[in-house]
């Protein structure tokens, strides 16, 4: 995934959010909430009013904290949602402009291993290059799940993994996909085994998707128990990322992590 694909996905989420907010606002009162702040004896006091307009005349009704607190909360929520709606519509407008005028140039292809330009653009690191493309024991489990193309001509299991691979590849960071390691006595196919381009140290990167799937929790527990017992410390010698249906992992997340750990 590149930045353009990210914004296409973001556009869909914004459109869904806007639709939900507009539906919720349609059932809320027409009045708005205003407040008055005053100081008395060194203390700050806030008074809330319900405001409406009748025949062009502004009408304000005092809302007492004890009697009208529910109505005040509802009007405050309406104000919050109204401002959120304005912000999301503005972001959507900006993204639509971006998508209309943005034209992607496939410059990453020039870094491919079969590209005649690679040797002119990349400072070759013989240790890293030899390691990256040397044969290694790779997972053969469920090949039917390998449906997402990655930049080195391989297929990976999820869009998030494709984002990680794209980010690593675009920064010329050597990696192996699903290399099998002996982790505390168990063979585990780590999502990404990475050689740091500067130190040549090996760093593992596991991405756990479907975290809201109860059945998947066993996989997370199984792997993390062994990684930690084997001496891999998340955030130090290992990278762990997560996502679920409401918190997706996107390309810019991968870029942020790559920038932090490798560049």
Q: Can you walk me through this structure?
A:
It is a single chain. With 263 residues, the chain is an alpha+beta fold. The protein folds into 2 domains: 3-101, no CATH class; 110-262, Trna Endonuclease, Chain: A, domain 1 (3-Layer(aba) Sandwich). The protein is built from 7 helices and 9 strands; from the N terminus they run αβββαααββαβββαβα. The protein has a 4-stranded mixed beta sheet with strand order 6-7-8-9. Strands 1-2-3 form a 3-stranded antiparallel beta sheet, with helices on one face. Strands 4-5 form a two-stranded antiparallel ribbon. β7 (186-195) and β8 (202-208) form a beta hairpin. α1 (3-26) runs antiparallel to α2 (69-101) and α5 crosses α7 (251-262). It is elongated and about 80 Å long. The model has no long low-confidence stretch (mean pLDDT 88).
Structural class: alpha+beta
CATH topology of the largest domain: Trna Endonuclease, Chain: A, domain 1
Summarize the helix and strand pattern as letters. HEEEHHHEEHEEEHEH
**Main beta sheet strand tally, sense and closure:** 4 strands, mixed
Total number of domains:
2
The span between the termini is 20 Å
Radius of gyration: 26 Å
Query: Uncertain regions: pLDDT < 50 for 5+ in a row?
Result: none
Which band does the percent of strand residues land in?
15-25%
Q: How are strands sequenced across the largest beta sheet? A: 6-7-8-9
CATH architecture of the largest domain: 3-Layer(aba) Sandwich
Tell me the number of strands: 9
Proportion in helices: 40-55%
């Amino acid at each position: 995934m590149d930045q353009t694909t990210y914004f296409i996905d973001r556009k869909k989420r914004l459109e869904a959010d806007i639709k939900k907010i507009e539906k919720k606002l349609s059932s809320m009162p027409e009045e708005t909430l205003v407040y008055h702040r005053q100081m008395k004896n060194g203390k700050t006091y806030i008074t809330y009013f319900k405001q409406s307009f009748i025949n062009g005349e502004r009408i304000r009704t005092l809302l007492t904290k004890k009697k009208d607190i529910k109505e005040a909360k509802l009007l405050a929520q309406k104000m919050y949602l109204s401002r959120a709606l304005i912000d999301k519509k503005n972001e959507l407008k900006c993204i639509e402009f971006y998508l209309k005028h943005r034209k992607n140039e496939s410059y990453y292809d020039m870094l491919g291993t079969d590209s005649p330009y690679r040797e002119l653009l990349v400072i070759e690191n013989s240790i890293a290059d030899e390691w990256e493309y040397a044969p290694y024991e790779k997972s053969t489990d469920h090949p039917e799940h390998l449906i997402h193309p990655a930049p080195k001509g391989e297929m990976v299991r999820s869009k998030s993994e494709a984002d990680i691979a794209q980010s690593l590849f675009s920064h010329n960071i050597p990696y192996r996909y699903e290399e099998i390691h002996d982790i505390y006595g168990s063979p585990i196919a780590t999502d990404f085994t990475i050689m740091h381009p500067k130190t040549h140290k090996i760093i593992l990167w596991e991405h756990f998707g479907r975290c809201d799937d109860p059945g998947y929790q066993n996989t997370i527990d199984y792997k993390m128990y062994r990684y930690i017992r084997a001496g891999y410390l998340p955030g130090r010698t290992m990278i762990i990322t997560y996502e679920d249906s409401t918190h997706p992992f996107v390309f810019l997340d991968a870029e942020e992590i790559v920038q932090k750990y490798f560049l």
